[in-house]
C-alpha cells in the first residue's frame, strides 16, 4: 500500500492532469489549465497519422565554456551543477586530477577531490573567482568551496557535489542554497546548507541517505509541483560483488525518494521506464523543467563497455586509451553519452533509447569514458543573433582523463526543443486526448519551412470540429517562433469553449511542433 506521504507527493502532479470522466463512460479528460505542454512523452497524444511522428532533437555544439586547468583541478573534473540566480549564473563542480602514464597505473591521488565554484553574467563566459576560503598548497587564492577534510562532525567528499538554489518558500535563509555530497565515512549522502552559496555547513551530523552505491553525481531538489524534496542517486540493481573494482551483479541504476525537510527520506523506489531496456546509467540529472515545472526532465549518462575492436583502436588517443586499460580494461574501452528522459510522477520515466547527446565527430578528448556527462541542469541564455529568442544552454564534459585538464563545452537547444511532433511535406496529423483548458488563445512553439505549414482544429470530445474552429477555418501558420497564437477566420477565439472537454487536431506539412499553451 502506498504511504500517505507518497500519495501527497504524487497526487498534486497527477490529479490536476486527469478529471473524472463525463457521464456515459466517456474517455477521461486531462485538466490542462494554462500550463505549457511538451511532447517528451505521449501524455497528450491520442494518435499520430500520416507521416507525423515524435522526433527527438539534439543539442548543437558551441564554444568551450570553461577549462579546468588550475593546479587544484585537472583531467578528472566534472559533475557540474549549473543554475541561474538572479543576475548571476552559478556553477559548481568536482575538481580532480587523473594522471595516466605508460609505465604506471592510473594515479588518482595527486591532490584531494574538491568542489569548486565558477560564475557568469550570461551563462556563456565563465570566471573562477579567487575566494580566499580554503587552503591549497599554502594559498587560499582559489575557487574551492567544499574542501577535502572535516566539516563539523562529517567528512564530505567534495568531488561528488550537486548544488541547487532552494526555492521552497519555507527554506530558512541559512539554507537558501543546499547540496547533496557523498560522505567519505560513513558511506552515504550528506546534506549541506549555505546562505551565500560559498560557505557551507552540514545540516545533519550523519548521512541522510545510506542505501546506495553513490559513486556518481547524486542529487536532490525542491519539487514545487508536488510540494516535496526529491532525491535521485546511484544504485546497483543487483548489488556489487566486488566493491574495490565495482563489479555489479546487475546494472548501474537510479533510485529516488521524497522528503518534507531534506533530512528524513522515505518512499524509496527504483526508476521504471516505458519501453527502455536495462542499461548502465551513471548520472541522472533530473530536475523540473523551468518552463513546464510539472515535467521532470533528466539527462542520464549511458555507460557502454564496448571492448577491444578495430573501431575502438581507431578512436582518438589510442595510445593513451591503452595506457588506461592496463589498470582496468573498462577505463580504456568504455564509452559514455547523454540521454533524455521525462516523468510526471518522479518514478516512471519515458527514456528515449536513442542518444540525446552523441560523442560527435572524433577529435582529441572525445569518445572516451567520462565524455558527454551533461551538467545538472540547463539554463536560458541569450541568442547571439539580434532579435532571436533565448536559447537553452546545456554543458557537457570532454577531455576527461587527458593531460592536465578537462573541459566543459556549451551546447544549445531551442526553448522546449527536446522533442517535436514532426511531419514532412507529404503531411501528417496529431490528434490529442480529450482535455479542458483555461484561457482565450492557443499559442504554439513551432518551426516550418518556407513552404510548410501548421493548421489547428478544435474538436469536441467525440472528435467533431467545433463551429468556426475547424481545420478549414484556421489560417495557415508558418515561420519559426517559440510563441505565436493560432488564428481562425472571423477572429474566432477558443475562450468561448474554455472549460469544456475538447481535443486538438493539428495538421503539419514540413513542420515541427514543440509545445503548446493556452493563454489569456
Keyword list:
39 strands, Tachylectin-2, Chain A, five-stranded antiparallel beta sheet, 2 domains, mainly beta, eight-stranded antiparallel beta sheet
Protein model, in words:
The protein is mostly beta strands and 520 residues long. The protein has two domains: 4-57 and 419-519, Sandwich (Jelly Rolls); 60-414, Glycosyl hydrolase domain, family 43 (Tachylectin-2, Chain A, 5 Propeller), CATH 2.115.10.20. The model is unreliable at 5-25 (pLDDT under 50).
Give a concise summary.
With 520 residues, the chain is mostly beta strands.
Per CATH, the superfamily of the largest domain is Glycosyl hydrolase domain, family 43
CATH fold descriptor of the largest domain: Tachylectin-2, Chain A
* Largest sheet data: 8 strands, antiparallel
* Beta-strand percentage range: 35-45%
Average pLDDT metric:
92
Shape by Cα distribution: globular
Q: Number of folding domains?
A: 2
Classified by CATH, the class of the largest domain is Mainly Beta
Topology summary:
Elements: H1 4-14, E1 30-33, E2 37-38, E3 45-50, E4 53-56, E5 60-68, E6 78-85, E7 88-95, E8 99-101, E9 104-107, E10 114-120, E11 126-127, E12 144-146, E13 156-165, E14 177-183, E15 188-194, E16 201-202, E17 219-223, E18 228-236, E19 240-242, E20 247-248, E21 252-259, E22 265-270, E23 272-273, E24 280-281, E25 287-289, E26 292-298, E27 301-305, H2 310-314, H3 318-325, H4 329-333, E28 334-338, E29 341-343, E30 348-351, E31 379-381, E32 391-398, E33 406-414, E34 419-423, E35 428-432, E36 435-437, E37 441-460, E38 480-485, E39 502-519
Parallel strand pairs: 1-36, 23-30
Antiparallel strand pairs: 2-39, 3-35, 4-34, 5-33, 6-7, 7-10, 8-9, 10-11, 10-12, 13-14, 14-15, 15-16, 17-18, 18-21, 19-20, 21-22, 24-27, 25-26, 26-29, 27-28, 29-30, 31-32, 32-33, 34-39, 35-39, 37-38, 37-39
